[in-house]
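Re: the request from the purification team.
They wanted to know what the chain is likely to look like in 3D before they choose a buffer screen. I agreed to run a prediction and write the result into the notebook, where they can find it.
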Amino acid sequence: QQSRERPALREPQIVFVETHGRLLKKGGADLKKSQADWRVTCFADEQAALDEIERKGLTLVLANLGPDHQGCERFLRTVRDRAPMAIRMALVPDLRDGKCVPALEYAHQCLAEQMGAEQIEEAVGRGLAMWSRVAANENLAGFLSDLHTLPTPPALYFDIRDELASPNGSMHRVAEHIARDPALTAKILKVVNSGLYGLPRSVSDLHHAIVLLGAETLMALVLAARLFAQLPLPGLKLDSLWVHCTMVAALAKEIAAEEGGDQKAMSASAVAGLLHDIGGLVFLANAPQRYFPLVRQAVGDESVLLEKEHALFGLGHPELGAYLLELWGLPDGIVEAVSVHHDLRWDALDDVALPCKAVFGAEWLIQKAAHLGEAEPTDSVVKPHPEVPEDMLGGWLRAFERVAKRGLVTKG
Protein backbone atom coordinates (compact mmCIF):
# COMPACT_ATOMS: atom_id res chain seq x y z
CA GLN A 1 0.00 0.00 0.00
CA GLN A 2 1.33 3.40 -0.96
CA SER A 3 2.29 5.76 1.85
CA ARG A 4 0.49 9.01 2.63
CA GLU A 5 3.56 11.14 2.04
CA ARG A 6 2.34 12.36 -1.32
CA PRO A 7 2.09 16.03 -0.24
CA ALA A 8 5.85 16.07 -0.98
CA LEU A 9 4.98 15.97 -4.68
CA ARG A 10 6.40 19.15 -6.19
CA GLU A 11 3.70 19.56 -8.79
CA PRO A 12 0.18 18.20 -9.25
CA GLN A 13 0.15 14.69 -10.71
CA ILE A 14 -3.19 14.21 -12.46
CA VAL A 15 -4.30 10.94 -14.01
CA PHE A 16 -7.20 10.66 -16.44
CA VAL A 17 -8.48 7.14 -17.08
CA GLU A 18 -10.94 6.74 -19.94
CA THR A 19 -12.14 3.44 -21.35
CA HIS A 20 -15.15 4.93 -23.15
CA GLY A 21 -15.17 7.96 -25.45
CA ARG A 22 -12.55 10.66 -25.90
CA LEU A 23 -13.75 13.45 -23.60
CA LEU A 24 -10.93 13.14 -21.07
CA LYS A 25 -8.27 12.56 -23.74
CA LYS A 26 -9.21 15.84 -25.36
CA GLY A 27 -9.63 17.55 -21.98
CA GLY A 28 -6.18 16.35 -20.89
CA ALA A 29 -4.60 17.82 -24.00
CA ASP A 30 -6.35 21.13 -23.33
CA LEU A 31 -5.22 21.15 -19.71
CA LYS A 32 -1.59 20.61 -20.69
CA LYS A 33 -1.82 23.76 -22.79
CA SER A 34 -3.71 25.95 -20.32
CA GLN A 35 -2.12 24.72 -17.06
CA ALA A 36 1.61 24.36 -17.59
CA ASP A 37 2.31 23.38 -13.98
CA TRP A 38 -0.20 20.50 -14.01
CA ARG A 39 1.23 17.12 -14.98
CA VAL A 40 -1.66 15.38 -16.75
CA THR A 41 -1.34 11.79 -17.96
CA CYS A 42 -4.13 10.04 -19.84
CA PHE A 43 -4.68 6.29 -19.94
CA ALA A 44 -7.09 4.03 -21.76
CA ASP A 45 -6.28 1.14 -19.45
CA GLU A 46 -6.93 0.96 -15.71
CA GLN A 47 -3.91 -1.21 -14.86
CA ALA A 48 -1.55 1.08 -16.75
CA ALA A 49 -2.89 3.98 -14.73
CA LEU A 50 -2.36 2.10 -11.46
CA ASP A 51 1.21 1.27 -12.49
CA GLU A 52 1.85 4.95 -13.16
CA ILE A 53 0.43 5.85 -9.75
CA GLU A 54 2.82 3.37 -8.14
CA ARG A 55 5.79 4.99 -9.89
CA LYS A 56 5.01 8.69 -9.58
CA GLY A 57 2.36 9.14 -6.92
CA LEU A 58 -0.93 10.90 -7.44
CA THR A 59 -2.70 14.12 -6.63
CA LEU A 60 -6.01 13.61 -8.44
CA VAL A 61 -7.62 10.93 -10.59
CA LEU A 62 -10.59 11.40 -12.88
CA ALA A 63 -12.09 8.19 -14.27
CA ASN A 64 -14.51 7.69 -17.12
CA LEU A 65 -15.36 4.00 -17.35
CA GLY A 66 -18.66 4.52 -19.09
CA PRO A 67 -21.50 2.27 -17.94
CA ASP A 68 -19.16 -0.01 -15.96
CA HIS A 69 -20.29 1.29 -12.59
CA GLN A 70 -18.91 -1.63 -10.58
CA GLY A 71 -15.61 -1.52 -12.46
CA CYS A 72 -15.24 2.17 -11.69
CA GLU A 73 -15.98 1.48 -8.05
CA ARG A 74 -13.29 -1.22 -7.91
CA PHE A 75 -10.77 1.03 -9.65
CA LEU A 76 -11.35 3.95 -7.29
CA ARG A 77 -11.17 1.66 -4.28
CA THR A 78 -7.76 0.46 -5.49
CA VAL A 79 -6.67 4.06 -5.99
CA ARG A 80 -7.73 4.80 -2.42
CA ASP A 81 -5.62 1.90 -1.17
CA ARG A 82 -2.54 2.92 -3.14
CA ALA A 83 -2.82 6.69 -2.87
CA PRO A 84 -5.07 7.44 0.13
CA MET A 85 -4.70 11.21 -0.06
CA ALA A 86 -5.53 11.53 -3.76
CA ILE A 87 -8.74 13.25 -4.77
CA ARG A 88 -10.94 10.72 -6.57
CA MET A 89 -13.43 11.87 -9.21
CA ALA A 90 -15.55 10.01 -11.74
CA LEU A 91 -17.62 10.89 -14.78
CA VAL A 92 -21.06 9.29 -14.59
CA PRO A 93 -22.74 8.85 -17.99
CA ASP A 94 -26.38 9.18 -17.00
CA LEU A 95 -26.19 11.61 -14.09
CA ARG A 96 -28.94 13.79 -15.49
CA ASP A 97 -31.70 11.39 -16.36
CA GLY A 98 -34.27 9.86 -14.09
CA LYS A 99 -32.45 6.52 -14.03
CA CYS A 100 -29.09 7.73 -12.76
CA VAL A 101 -26.81 5.13 -11.22
CA PRO A 102 -26.16 5.18 -7.47
CA ALA A 103 -23.41 7.50 -6.31
CA LEU A 104 -19.97 5.91 -6.35
CA GLU A 105 -18.90 5.19 -2.77
CA TYR A 106 -15.19 5.69 -3.43
CA ALA A 107 -15.50 8.91 -5.45
CA HIS A 108 -15.04 12.22 -3.69
CA GLN A 109 -17.10 13.73 -6.48
CA CYS A 110 -19.21 12.42 -9.36
CA LEU A 111 -19.40 14.66 -12.42
CA ALA A 112 -21.83 14.59 -15.30
CA GLU A 113 -20.31 13.06 -18.43
CA GLN A 114 -22.12 15.72 -20.45
CA MET A 115 -20.20 18.58 -18.85
CA GLY A 116 -17.85 20.56 -21.06
CA ALA A 117 -14.07 20.84 -20.98
CA GLU A 118 -14.21 24.18 -19.13
CA GLN A 119 -16.34 22.68 -16.38
CA ILE A 120 -14.01 19.70 -16.08
CA GLU A 121 -11.05 22.06 -15.72
CA GLU A 122 -12.89 23.96 -12.99
CA ALA A 123 -13.70 20.72 -11.15
CA VAL A 124 -10.09 19.55 -11.36
CA GLY A 125 -8.89 22.93 -10.13
CA ARG A 126 -11.20 22.72 -7.11
CA GLY A 127 -9.98 19.19 -6.45
CA LEU A 128 -6.35 20.31 -6.51
CA ALA A 129 -7.11 23.21 -4.16
CA MET A 130 -8.77 20.77 -1.78
CA TRP A 131 -5.79 18.40 -2.02
CA SER A 132 -3.44 21.22 -1.04
CA ARG A 133 -5.47 21.99 2.05
CA VAL A 134 -5.85 18.33 2.96
CA ALA A 135 -2.09 17.85 2.65
CA ALA A 136 -1.60 20.44 5.38
CA ASN A 137 -4.09 18.78 7.76
CA GLU A 138 -3.13 15.28 8.86
CA ASN A 139 -6.43 14.61 10.64
CA LEU A 140 -8.51 15.63 7.66
CA ALA A 141 -6.29 13.63 5.33
CA GLY A 142 -6.76 10.52 7.43
CA PHE A 143 -10.53 10.90 7.61
CA LEU A 144 -10.99 11.65 3.90
CA SER A 145 -8.85 8.68 2.91
CA ASP A 146 -11.19 6.38 4.82
CA LEU A 147 -14.44 7.84 3.53
CA HIS A 148 -16.86 5.37 2.01
CA THR A 149 -19.69 7.82 1.37
CA LEU A 150 -19.20 11.40 0.28
CA PRO A 151 -22.46 12.93 -0.95
CA THR A 152 -22.46 14.24 -4.50
CA PRO A 153 -24.75 16.88 -5.97
CA PRO A 154 -27.91 15.36 -7.46
CA ALA A 155 -28.66 15.41 -11.17
CA LEU A 156 -31.18 18.18 -10.63
CA TYR A 157 -28.44 20.42 -9.23
CA PHE A 158 -26.57 20.35 -12.55
CA ASP A 159 -29.75 20.91 -14.53
CA ILE A 160 -30.65 23.99 -12.48
CA ARG A 161 -27.09 25.33 -12.52
CA ASP A 162 -26.84 25.02 -16.28
CA GLU A 163 -30.25 26.60 -16.78
CA LEU A 164 -29.38 29.58 -14.59
CA ALA A 165 -25.99 29.98 -16.29
CA SER A 166 -27.48 29.93 -19.77
CA PRO A 167 -28.00 33.31 -21.50
CA ASN A 168 -31.50 32.08 -22.35
CA GLY A 169 -32.16 30.47 -18.97
CA SER A 170 -35.43 31.14 -17.20
CA MET A 171 -37.00 30.47 -13.83
CA HIS A 172 -39.95 28.91 -15.66
CA ARG A 173 -37.70 26.15 -17.02
CA VAL A 174 -36.04 25.80 -13.61
CA ALA A 175 -39.52 25.25 -12.19
CA GLU A 176 -40.13 22.57 -14.82
CA HIS A 177 -36.96 20.75 -13.74
CA ILE A 178 -37.92 20.89 -10.07
CA ALA A 179 -41.51 19.81 -10.73
CA ARG A 180 -40.13 16.38 -11.75
CA ASP A 181 -39.25 15.83 -8.08
CA PRO A 182 -42.46 15.95 -6.00
CA ALA A 183 -40.61 15.63 -2.67
CA LEU A 184 -38.33 18.57 -3.44
CA THR A 185 -41.26 20.60 -4.73
CA ALA A 186 -43.08 20.06 -1.45
CA LYS A 187 -39.98 21.04 0.56
CA ILE A 188 -39.48 24.25 -1.43
CA LEU A 189 -43.10 25.29 -0.94
CA LYS A 190 -42.81 24.45 2.76
CA VAL A 191 -39.71 26.62 3.17
CA VAL A 192 -41.25 29.57 1.33
CA ASN A 193 -44.41 29.32 3.43
CA SER A 194 -42.55 28.73 6.69
CA GLY A 195 -42.34 32.41 7.55
CA LEU A 196 -38.82 32.86 6.22
CA TYR A 197 -40.05 35.64 3.95
CA GLY A 198 -42.84 36.99 6.15
CA LEU A 199 -45.40 36.71 3.36
CA PRO A 200 -48.94 37.86 4.09
CA ARG A 201 -50.42 34.87 2.24
CA SER A 202 -49.39 31.37 1.34
CA VAL A 203 -47.61 30.56 -1.92
CA SER A 204 -48.74 27.53 -3.90
CA ASP A 205 -47.15 28.30 -7.27
CA LEU A 206 -43.72 26.68 -7.69
CA HIS A 207 -42.42 29.35 -10.07
CA HIS A 208 -43.39 32.11 -7.63
CA ALA A 209 -41.72 30.16 -4.82
CA ILE A 210 -38.35 29.78 -6.55
CA VAL A 211 -38.35 33.45 -7.57
CA LEU A 212 -38.79 34.36 -3.91
CA LEU A 213 -36.01 32.00 -2.87
CA GLY A 214 -33.50 33.31 -5.40
CA ALA A 215 -30.92 31.29 -7.31
CA GLU A 216 -28.35 30.78 -4.53
CA THR A 217 -30.86 29.75 -1.88
CA LEU A 218 -32.61 27.45 -4.34
CA MET A 219 -29.34 25.69 -5.19
CA ALA A 220 -28.52 25.30 -1.50
CA LEU A 221 -31.97 23.87 -0.84
CA VAL A 222 -31.50 21.29 -3.60
CA LEU A 223 -28.15 20.25 -2.10
CA ALA A 224 -29.44 20.16 1.47
CA ALA A 225 -32.54 18.17 0.52
CA ARG A 226 -30.34 15.55 -1.17
CA LEU A 227 -28.08 15.29 1.86
CA PHE A 228 -30.94 14.78 4.28
CA ALA A 229 -32.63 12.27 1.98
CA GLN A 230 -29.46 10.16 1.83
CA LEU A 231 -29.39 9.45 5.55
CA PRO A 232 -32.39 7.44 6.78
CA LEU A 233 -30.51 6.39 9.92
CA PRO A 234 -32.56 4.57 12.60
CA GLY A 235 -32.96 6.51 15.81
CA LEU A 236 -31.81 9.82 14.34
CA LYS A 237 -34.28 12.67 14.08
CA LEU A 238 -33.14 14.34 10.89
CA ASP A 239 -36.29 16.46 10.93
CA SER A 240 -34.95 18.22 14.03
CA LEU A 241 -31.62 18.87 12.34
CA TRP A 242 -33.39 20.20 9.25
CA VAL A 243 -35.46 22.56 11.42
CA HIS A 244 -32.30 23.76 13.14
CA CYS A 245 -30.60 24.48 9.81
CA THR A 246 -33.58 26.46 8.51
CA MET A 247 -33.71 28.40 11.79
CA VAL A 248 -30.05 29.34 11.49
CA ALA A 249 -30.58 30.30 7.83
CA ALA A 250 -33.51 32.57 8.67
CA LEU A 251 -31.77 34.27 11.57
CA ALA A 252 -28.47 34.65 9.72
CA LYS A 253 -30.30 36.43 6.93
CA GLU A 254 -31.95 38.81 9.40
CA ILE A 255 -28.67 39.50 11.19
CA ALA A 256 -27.06 40.31 7.84
CA ALA A 257 -29.90 42.73 7.11
CA GLU A 258 -29.56 44.29 10.58
CA GLU A 259 -25.84 44.78 9.95
CA GLY A 260 -26.57 46.67 6.75
CA GLY A 261 -25.78 43.89 4.30
CA ASP A 262 -26.98 44.02 0.71
CA GLN A 263 -29.10 41.36 -0.96
CA LYS A 264 -26.05 39.34 -1.96
CA ALA A 265 -24.72 39.23 1.59
CA MET A 266 -28.16 38.35 2.96
CA SER A 267 -28.53 35.53 0.44
CA ALA A 268 -25.05 34.16 1.16
CA SER A 269 -25.79 34.24 4.89
CA ALA A 270 -29.01 32.28 4.41
CA VAL A 271 -27.32 29.70 2.18
CA ALA A 272 -24.42 29.21 4.59
CA GLY A 273 -26.89 28.91 7.45
CA LEU A 274 -28.84 26.23 5.64
CA LEU A 275 -25.67 24.22 4.89
CA HIS A 276 -23.67 24.95 8.05
CA ASP A 277 -24.06 21.50 9.62
CA ILE A 278 -23.55 19.27 6.58
CA GLY A 279 -20.21 18.13 7.96
CA GLY A 280 -22.17 16.35 10.67
CA LEU A 281 -24.12 14.49 8.00
CA VAL A 282 -20.86 13.32 6.42
CA PHE A 283 -19.72 12.04 9.82
CA LEU A 284 -23.02 10.22 10.24
CA ALA A 285 -22.86 8.66 6.78
CA ASN A 286 -19.33 7.34 7.24
CA ALA A 287 -18.97 6.61 10.95
CA PRO A 288 -22.49 6.26 12.39
CA GLN A 289 -21.51 3.88 15.21
CA ARG A 290 -18.86 6.30 16.45
CA TYR A 291 -20.61 9.59 15.69
CA PHE A 292 -24.19 8.94 16.75
CA PRO A 293 -23.19 8.50 20.44
CA LEU A 294 -21.51 11.91 20.26
CA VAL A 295 -24.75 13.48 19.04
CA ARG A 296 -26.68 11.90 21.91
CA GLN A 297 -24.09 12.92 24.50
CA ALA A 298 -24.05 16.53 23.29
CA VAL A 299 -27.85 16.80 23.82
CA GLY A 300 -28.16 19.57 21.24
CA ASP A 301 -25.21 21.62 22.48
CA GLU A 302 -23.03 22.04 19.41
CA SER A 303 -20.08 23.42 21.35
CA VAL A 304 -19.97 20.15 23.30
CA LEU A 305 -20.41 18.20 20.07
CA LEU A 306 -17.51 20.07 18.47
CA GLU A 307 -15.21 19.26 21.38
CA LYS A 308 -16.12 15.57 21.16
CA GLU A 309 -15.57 15.56 17.37
CA HIS A 310 -12.07 16.92 17.78
CA ALA A 311 -11.32 14.44 20.54
CA LEU A 312 -12.46 11.45 18.46
CA PHE A 313 -11.69 12.43 14.86
CA GLY A 314 -9.19 15.26 15.17
CA LEU A 315 -11.47 17.64 13.26
CA GLY A 316 -14.93 19.11 13.56
CA HIS A 317 -18.05 19.21 11.41
CA PRO A 318 -17.55 22.87 10.34
CA GLU A 319 -14.19 22.08 8.77
CA LEU A 320 -15.42 18.88 7.13
CA GLY A 321 -18.53 20.58 5.73
CA ALA A 322 -16.48 23.45 4.33
CA TYR A 323 -14.17 21.08 2.44
CA LEU A 324 -17.19 19.33 0.91
CA LEU A 325 -18.74 22.63 -0.21
CA GLU A 326 -15.40 23.75 -1.62
CA LEU A 327 -15.18 20.54 -3.63
CA TRP A 328 -18.67 21.19 -4.97
CA GLY A 329 -17.64 24.67 -6.09
CA LEU A 330 -19.80 26.83 -3.84
CA PRO A 331 -18.68 30.47 -3.45
CA ASP A 332 -15.72 31.10 -1.15
CA GLY A 333 -17.77 33.34 1.14
CA ILE A 334 -20.26 30.56 1.85
CA VAL A 335 -17.50 27.98 2.36
CA GLU A 336 -15.74 30.29 4.83
CA ALA A 337 -18.94 31.00 6.76
CA VAL A 338 -19.56 27.27 7.20
CA SER A 339 -15.94 26.71 8.23
CA VAL A 340 -15.93 29.28 11.05
CA HIS A 341 -19.51 29.16 12.35
CA HIS A 342 -18.25 28.00 15.78
CA ASP A 343 -14.80 29.55 15.69
CA LEU A 344 -14.80 33.35 15.72
CA ARG A 345 -13.45 35.72 18.37
CA TRP A 346 -15.91 38.28 19.69
CA ASP A 347 -13.34 41.06 19.50
CA ALA A 348 -12.68 40.30 15.81
CA LEU A 349 -16.22 40.00 14.42
CA ASP A 350 -16.01 43.31 12.60
CA ASP A 351 -12.97 42.05 10.71
CA VAL A 352 -14.68 39.06 9.05
CA ALA A 353 -17.02 38.88 6.08
CA LEU A 354 -20.67 39.54 6.93
CA PRO A 355 -21.95 36.01 6.15
CA CYS A 356 -19.35 34.60 8.59
CA LYS A 357 -20.50 37.01 11.28
CA ALA A 358 -24.19 36.41 10.56
CA VAL A 359 -24.05 32.61 10.69
CA PHE A 360 -21.86 32.66 13.79
CA GLY A 361 -24.29 35.04 15.50
CA ALA A 362 -27.36 33.05 14.45
CA GLU A 363 -25.90 29.77 15.69
CA TRP A 364 -24.84 31.37 18.99
CA LEU A 365 -28.22 32.99 19.64
CA ILE A 366 -30.19 29.84 18.82
CA GLN A 367 -27.91 27.74 21.01
CA LYS A 368 -28.40 30.17 23.91
CA ALA A 369 -32.18 30.21 23.43
CA ALA A 370 -32.33 26.43 23.29
CA HIS A 371 -30.17 26.10 26.42
CA LEU A 372 -32.50 28.37 28.40
CA GLY A 373 -35.67 26.92 26.89
CA GLU A 374 -36.65 30.32 25.54
CA ALA A 375 -38.84 30.87 22.50
CA GLU A 376 -39.09 34.64 22.86
CA PRO A 377 -36.20 37.00 22.15
CA THR A 378 -35.96 38.41 25.69
CA ASP A 379 -32.73 39.71 27.18
CA SER A 380 -32.52 36.53 29.25
CA VAL A 381 -31.61 34.66 26.09
CA VAL A 382 -28.23 36.33 25.84
CA LYS A 383 -27.59 38.13 29.13
CA PRO A 384 -25.45 38.21 31.08
CA HIS A 385 -22.81 37.50 28.46
CA PRO A 386 -20.10 40.16 28.73
CA GLU A 387 -18.22 38.76 25.76
CA VAL A 388 -20.90 40.10 23.40
CA PRO A 389 -20.27 43.73 22.36
CA GLU A 390 -23.24 45.79 23.55
CA ASP A 391 -23.56 47.77 20.34
CA MET A 392 -23.93 44.49 18.46
CA LEU A 393 -26.31 42.83 20.89
CA GLY A 394 -29.25 45.15 20.29
CA GLY A 395 -29.27 44.56 16.56
CA TRP A 396 -29.00 40.80 16.95
CA LEU A 397 -31.91 40.79 19.37
CA ARG A 398 -34.02 42.78 16.93
CA ALA A 399 -33.22 40.23 14.25
CA PHE A 400 -34.07 37.42 16.70
CA GLU A 401 -37.39 39.09 17.48
CA ARG A 402 -38.40 39.44 13.82
CA VAL A 403 -37.60 35.78 13.19
CA ALA A 404 -39.37 34.63 16.35
CA LYS A 405 -42.52 36.56 15.45
CA ARG A 406 -42.67 34.62 12.20
CA GLY A 407 -42.48 31.34 14.12
CA LEU A 408 -39.02 30.43 12.87
CA VAL A 409 -37.34 30.06 16.27
CA THR A 410 -38.63 27.34 18.57
CA LYS A 411 -37.72 25.98 21.98
CA GLY A 412 -34.92 23.44 22.13
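For the purification team: The radius of gyration is 22 Å.
Please add any questions underneath this entry.
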